[in-house]
Amino acid sequence: MDITIGKIILMFLVAFFAYMHSYFGSNMWNRPIVVGPLVGLVLGDLDSGLKLGATLELVFMGAFPVGASNPPDFVSGTIIATAYVIMSGKSIASAVLLAVPIATLVLLIDNLQMTFLLTYASHKADKYALEGDIKGVERTQVIFGILNKLILAAIVAIGFAAGVPVIETVLSYVPKFVTHGLDIAAGIIPAIGFAMLAKMMLTKKMIPYLLAGFLLAAYLEVTVVGVALFGIVAVLLVINSKENSAVKEVALDDNEF
Amino acid sequence: MTTNSKITRKDFWSVFFRSLTLDSSWNYERMQNLSFAYTMAPIIRRLYSNKEDKALALQRHLEFMSITPHISTLLFGITSAMEEENSKNKEFDSSSISAVKSSLMGPIAGVGDSFFWGTLKVIATGIAISLSREGNMFGPIAFLLIINIPHFILRYICLDRGLKFGAKFFGDLGSSGLIQTITESASVLGLMVIGAMTASNVNFELTMKVGGGKIAESLQTYIDQIMLGFFPAVFFLIIYWLLGKKVKTTTLLLGVIVFSILVALTGLA
Fold first, then answer.
1. Does residue B199 sit within a domain?
2. Which of A223, B91, B127, B192 has its CA 20 to 30 A from that of B12?
3. ipTM
4. pLDDT in tens, B4-22
């Protein structure tokens, strides 16, 4: 498949759409599971787009923004890697091989934006604020809020146009055991994401729930939806036992009088 | 909104829609401050007529801000209610607005992050991945609906309640232990799903065979007899332990890749 001007523009639009998710409520339409199929649609291979989106979603499972930490830029990684795999007909392993370094590289560029461009915008807004100029502050947010997404989308489009042919040649020299190794890595990498998510919530008291979910899936092959439903039962039990202990505490208080 | 509030229905929706942009101009210095001020702008315009008051209010809301975007409207509601109080009441100490903002963003972000990232997104991903892998285009659609139906309902409720109750809201919540119950419930549900997804989505199999000829069996058969999901559990535990040692995720990622290539080289898997 050749790279045409039309395709470059379409990639730009997909990227811009994805980055603009933070302008529409951080609704997560920038995730690989959504962006992969969009790239597939643009390149006329929805099926591969869906499958690559699913794989890359797992690879980037641990990529979520909490507080001051910014995850790798999985939008660029997903778009370029998915496009490459669909256009070259290569294996899914090469998508993983590409997506991770691209995402890391683009995060560096985005970090520059967030350090200089957007900090500059915030200082500009300070000046308008001093004068009580509400319109000035609003204008700054709208302009810079959209501008930084346009810049990122342009980087993705350029990366797509310039990168894919280069990637093609570079990858042809990669030995077979490396691609097989990456296939294996794609199976293990999601564990990083799950461990990061667990880290956010896990306390000693919570270990049984993590184990219960794991064992239900490993031994009884209960689906994720099934486990989530069992989870609701567990939540109700927790709430019940809390209410009971609350009642007891009140009763104890009464005894003291 | 109380009936004698100056804040109109139009302002309510204006804040609602502007709050959607909270993460769009994120910067390292004060994070979501620019969009926070942008979202408060309709309220400031409604409540204050002279330039000095407008300037002070804008400056207040250009301060540091870091909160889960999806339920940020709770803070927008509370802050708007406090701004209104400030505009009416000469005795009101405007510095309490900044104080309330900085004391509430931590708890709101704590609940929001574990609910949206730890629970809702994980469930949505689990369902969507199984659909997408079969080439079913409802995968991404289900993903977006599972996250965004609760998201937009909560976004609306939070703004509504925040405005109605103002700063009193969190006082009530804190004493009833509701926040703790919500966080704990989200954690229970989230952890169960994370456990299940670790078992079903982390893959590693030893393909090397032991024994010869007809009785050759792959090593994995023996491992499975010890414990199903042995390798997913082991990888999860090692990585969890390393995360506790403050090992960076990029280092972990590289480590996994190097390990996998070595395994491929030895022919174990």
1. no
2. B91
3. 0.85
4. 689 999 999 999 999 999 9
